[in-house]
Specification:
Blueprint: H1 29-38, H2 42-70, H3 81-116, H4 124-143, H5 171-198, H6 211-242, H7 256-273, H8 276-290, H9 297-311, H10 326-338, H11 340-354, H12 363-386, H13 388-394, H14 398-428, H15 434-460, H16 475-503, H17 540-551
């Protein structure tokens, strides 16, 4: 595409340096390893985050398939119940801290400096350290499964006293791993805030930042507020286990319910940490393939901020059945339902962006539209869970499992797929295979719905979550869920092949703009961009044009 500032738009193209030697093995294996180990470049570190997330995705997904294989029919089919509980625990932790969060941080590392016209992240060495904490944390978490006494077996929420008084010795490894993950997240968040605050191109005001930048800016504050609470509560568990304290032991005057309050005070902002960047991604993709400006930019920014604020004051809706006073229940019920308002604004604005647009349905657009539809289903079941008397029926059943998988798989994970397909040609300089992308999309969306939709009915019929065996009347729906899970797993092999194929430069060569209708500073750079994105900041004219083309219409 061309526009009035065609020449200045390419000012990032010819600056910077060629990719360093560690991008190829020609200089020797040692130099290659050392280069990736000590790199401080935002693109390299973004790539490392995304590759770690991909590895963890297949690891955590493999655990999920073991869980579903166990539940294919009643009777302890494959594992004893204790090992089943270990699978559930590690699957949850790997998917949250190893897949969703590192993928979003990887996307932030790759895209934020290019979107705000910066050369790199504000704190590049800290960036390197933030990443390299994670492989050790997940090695430790995986190692805990093989410790004498068995792996952590109390679910990803690590409820006391199951974790504090009765947890196996491997619980200590899990606590150290969580501390390492938490430090990584906090350092990454500080870096993102510093980059967005200080490294924006001259002339880029707060209300000229792309939506993806806004969502990550707000998410970073959620991380800084929430992660220390998790660190504190798992440290209290550690002290209960080894230093004679009784924070969560009723026999010593402690209170197990206090653990739930502290955990969910972290846990609810954490849910939004895993979805706000997804909102940003979808807000970038829908205007591109609708050939329209995003509807209601200012309202979208305000809605993200409102969701983030409300996420800190609704944690109690996870605990309606824990003996809460009626007045407190009412407060948490109303506060939770209010979150539907800013979320509804976002869904309305996405639909309004597509309304009467010149739509085309490339793979990123398909994933973005599926996100809007399926995330909305997850939101509706969340509203059902917010209503106290109804929650007494749903609590700790498969209805809850269905709800959060619709939010996190059909929500966060689909947005990550959308982002990878959207930006992969920019990263590699080559287009992915569109046919394989569409196969991956349809098999994934069918797999998600076949796996998780029947769980709503299982939950309404009373099937409890986290059980290795179940009553015979739940058999048929569980068989359907397991079939869907294996279909979903197979679809990801297509994704893996497509990504590797594109990274190996098999696809057609990508232009700098990549998609007709794409606007933003990242699309003024070459494909792939130079090693240092903007050696000189983009001009005011380019900045104003790219922002106006993407956002101004409709507020």
């Amino acid at each position: 595409m061309t526009h009035p500032h065609h020449e200045t738009a390419h000012e990032g193209l010819h600056h910077g340096h060629d990719a360093p030697l560690h991008h190829s093995l020609k200089n020797g294996f040692g130099a290659w390893v050392k280069g990736w180990l000590f790199t401080t470049n935002h693109k390299d570190i973004g790539t490392l985050y995304l590759l770690l997330s991909l590895l963890m995705f297949f690891y955590g997904g493999g655990l999920a398939l073991l869980i579903r294989a166990q539940l294919f029919q009643p009777g302890a089919q494959l594992f004893d119940p204790n090992f089943y509980n270990e699978l559930v625990t590690v699957h949850g932790l790997v998917m949250i801290f190893g897949v969703i969060m590192p993928a979003f941080v990887g996307l932030a590392n790759w895209m934020l400096p290019m979107m705000v016209g910066a050369q790199d992240m504000a704190l590049p060495r800290l960036n390197n350290w933030s990443f390299w904490l994670l492989p050790f944390a997940f090695t430790l978490l995986t190692f805990s499964l093989f410790v004498q006494g068995g792996g952590p077996n109390f679910g990803w929420t690590m409820y006391a006293p199951l974790s504090s008084t009765y947890g196996p010795p491997s619980t200590d490894y899990l606590i150290v791993a969580i501390h390492m993950m938490g430090i990584s997240s906090i350092l990454g968040a500080i870096n993102i805030i510093a980059t967005i605050t200080n490294m924006r191109a001259p002339g880029m005001g707060w209300m000229q930042m792309p939506l993806f930048v806004w969502t990550w800016f707000i998410t970073a504050f959620l991380l800084i507020g929430a992660m220390p609470v998790l660190a504190g509560v798992v440290t209290m568990v550690l002290f209960d286990r080894h230093f004679g304290t009784t924070f969560f032991n009723a026999a010593g005057g402690g209170d197990p319910v206090m653990y739930q309050h502290l955990f969910w005070f972290f846990g609810h902002p954490e849910v939004y940490i895993m979805i706000l960047p997804a909102f940003g991604i979808v807000s970038e993709i829908l205007p591109t393939f609708s050939r329209k400006k995003l509807f209601g930019y200012h309202f979208m920014v305000g809605a993200v901020a409102a969701i983030a604020f409300l996420s800190y004051i609704v944690w109690g809706h996870h605990m309606f059945t824990a003996g809460m006073a009626v007045g407190t229940q009412l407060y948490f019920m109303y506060a939770t339902m209010i979150i539907a308002v800013p979320t509804g604004i976002k869904v309305f604005n996405w639909v309004a962006t597509m309304w009467r647009g010149s739509l085309s349905f490339e793979t990123p657009m398909l994933f973005a539209i599926a996100f809007v539809i399926l995330f909305t289903i997850g939101g509706f079941s969340g509203l059902m869970l917010a209503i106290v008397p109804a929650d007494y029926q749903y609590q700790d059943t498969y209805f809850v499992v269905a709800h959060f998988h619709y939010v996190l798989v059909a929500g966060a994970l689909l947005s990550i797929f959308a982002a990878v397909y959207y930006w992969l040609p920019k990263w590699t300089g080559h287009y992915y295979n569109e046919t394989l992308g569409k196969w991956h999309f349809w098999l994934t969306v069918i797999g998600i719905n076949v796996t998780f939709f029947p769980m709503h009915f299982l939950g309404l019929a009373g099937m409890p979550r986290r059980i290795a065996d179940y009553a015979i009347q739940y058999t048929e729906f569980n068989m359907v869920c397991t079939f869907g899970a294996f279909l979903l797993g197979f679809a990801q092999l297509i994704f893996l092949y497509n990504v590797i194929r594109t990274m190996a430069h098999y696809g057609d060569k990508a232009t700098h703009r990549v998609w007709e209708g794409a606007h933003g500073l990242e699309w003024t750079l070459g494909s792939p961009p130079a090693y240092h994105s903007f050696s000189t900041p983009p001009s005011q004219a380019v900045l104003a044009h790219e922002f106006h083309e993407r956002y101004v219409e409709g507020g």
